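A common beginner's mistake is to predict each chain separately and then try to dock the pieces by hand. The better habit, illustrated here, is to supply every component at once so that their relative placement is modeled jointly.
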Amino acid sequence: MSQPVQLFCWHFMAYPYLADNFDETEPTGWVTVPNRLWDRDKARGLYQEYIDQLSYGDQLGFDGMVLNEHHQNIYGLMPSPNMIAAALTQTTTRGKIVVLGNLLPLHMNPLRVAEEYAMLDNMSNGRIIAGLAPGSGPETFNYDVPSAPTREQFWEAVDLVTSAWSKDGPFRHEGRWYPLRYVNTWPRPVQVPHPPVWVPGSRSKSTMVEVAKRGFAFFLSSRSHGEETARSQREFAQAIESTGDRYQPFRMGILLSVYVGETDEQAKRESREGIWYFLKNCLKGHLRRTGRQLTFGPGIPYVPPKDFRALLQHSKPDSKLLGDADSWEELEKSNSIIVGSAETVYRRLSQLIEESQVGNLLIQFHLGNMKQDLVRKSMKRFIEEVAPRLREESKAMFAERYGRELEHPRALVGVGAGK
Amino acid sequence: MNTQTMTPARTVDVRGRKVAVLEQGTGAPLLYLHGFVDVHGVKPDFMPFHDRLAKAGRLIAPAHSGVNGTDENTDILTIEDAVFHTLEVMDALDLKRVDVVGHSLGGWIAAELAARHPEKVARLVLIDAMGLFVPNEPTGDIFMMAQPSDGGQNTGLRELLFKDARGKVANTLFPDGRGDIEDEVRRYQMLRLGSFIGFKPPYFYNRTLTNRLYRIACPSLVVWGEHDRFVPPAHGREYAKLLPGCMGLKTVDAAHALIAEQPDTTAKIVTEFLG
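With all components supplied together, the output reads:
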C-alpha cells in the first residue's frame, strides 16, 4: 500500500504580543521569562485563533495537525497539548491529530498519559498519533525533574503506556520508577494494538535503537536539514535493520517551517516580521547562542558521560544555532525555514524528500507573531500549488524504492482508524 | 614533617565496581570527600590545598560515583544511596574510624554519614557543605549556571563559585570556550551525580538532616567561604549551631571555591584543627 509523503501542519502557538525591544530587554524567552509580559486583553481569543488555523488546515486537506508540549515560555503556549487535541477532535474530521509529544517524566504517573490518549483516540475515532517524549532542559528547571535519570524513567514509562493500551488488564507493573498493582485502562483506544507512537530524538543512536526495536516512528527534532538529516536517516535505517526489519519512509518524520508567497520577494516581504520574531524572541534560550540556552548542555546531564565527551569532540561551543541567523542567505543554509514562491518551495522540499527519504513532513506555517491572514494564505498556496506535485512524485518514488516494505509493514501501526 | 608522596590514582574494587582513589602523605588516615571545585571535580589530581592538607596525615580521596574514573553506581538516586556507597568504599579501604573532611557535595555526604554512623567518624570538618534546608537561604542554581551563555562563556559559573570571578584562578579552572575536554567531562560527571541526589528538591538538601545532626558528638569544625553564593554562609552558621561537638565556625575571604581561592588559609584552618 503505497502512499505519498504525509504533509502535516504544526502549530507551536507562540506568544505573539511581545514588545519590539524584547530581545534587548529580556535575557531569555524560556523558563524565567517574566509572565507579567502576558497581555490579558490582547491574548483574549488567541487559542481560538490558533485552533481555527489548524482546523483550516484540516479543511484544506493536510494529512494531519501537530501539537507539542512546552512550559513557561513564549515559544509554545501548550503546557497541555491534549487540551488542544481534544478541541481538534471536535473541529476536524479527517486529518490525524499528532501530539508530539506528552513529556512522560513530567507526569507523576504515566497512566494518566495512556488514559488521555485513549480518550482522544475515542473522541477522534482513531485519528490520534501518540507522541511520547522525555523532555529536555527547560522542563528540568521548571518542573523540578532531575535530568540524570530521565532516559531510564522515560523508556519504562513508554512501555507501561503501550502495555496499558494493548494488554488485557488488570495487570501488575513492577518497574523501578512506576510500580503499580492494578493497570487496567478504561477506555481502551480505538486503534489496535494501539495508536502509532512517535518518539522525538536528536541524533542519539541509543534513542534510535530503542525506537526501532519497538516499531515506533522516529521524529528527528533537529532544526536544520542537509547532510546531517540524510545521515540520521541512514543511522535510523541501520537501527531498524539491526532489529530484523527494514526501513520505510513513514517510520521517520522531520520538522521544518515554510512560507509560500506569490513570488520569492513577496514571500520574504510577508514573512519577514514573523520569522525574525520567531528567530530572535522564541528561540532565545533555546536555539540561540546569545543568552543562555537551556536545551542541551552540562547543566542538563541526562546523557551518559561518554556521549557528552563525543559531543564535545564534535562541536564548537560558539557555533551558530538556527536563531543566530542574521540574513536570508544564512537562513537558507539551515534548510529548515523555507520561504519563497510555490515553485521555490516545491523545488527545495522535493530535494529534501529525495535526499532524506523521509515520509512525514511536519511543517510549521505560523511563525512568531505572523498574522492569521498570512498564515492561511501560505497554507492554502502550499496545499494548492506545492502539495500536489510533492504527493505525486513521492508516491511513485516510495512505491518504487520501498514497495515490498510498504506492502507488508512489520512495524506496529494503528489499525482500525475511522471505521 | 612527613615526606610528601604523590601516588597516581589507584582503583579499588568496591563490590564489583571500580573506585578511583588518590592518596598522599603518611600517618593517620584522613578521608577526604570532594566537592565540585575540587580534586576529581575539576582536576584529575590533587591541588595545592590538598598538598598542604596531606601534612596532617595520610590523605585518602576517593572519587564519587561516576566521577573521574569511578564507575557510576546505578543504585544511587538519593543522598541515602550516596552515603551507603561511601560506607562501602570505607569498608573496601578498611577505614573503621577516621577523621573526615568533606567539601561541598562531599561535605553533605560526610554530615549524613556521621549522623548515621557516628562511631565511624573520629573528627569531622565540613567546608561549605550543602545538605541543610535553611528557610529563605536557597542554594544557587549550579545547573542553570553550568549552561554556558553567549556561545561558551562560563561567566555564570565563575560568578556563582568564586569571589573573584574575573581572577586567574576562576578563569583557569572554568575557562570560556572549549577548555580541556576531560576537565569538562569531569565537571559533567559531578553535575550528573548532583542531578541524581541533589535535584529533587532542586536545592541540594535533605530536610530530615537538621534533626539528625544531634547524633554527631565528635569534635567538629565548620569552615566557610564568607562570600559563598552557591551555599550561603547561613548554612554554615546552621551547621555550627546544630553540631553538638562543634569547635567553631571559621570563615575565609573567598566564595564556594575557597580551597582554590585561598588554599593556604583554608588548609591551615583545617590542619590546625586536626593537628
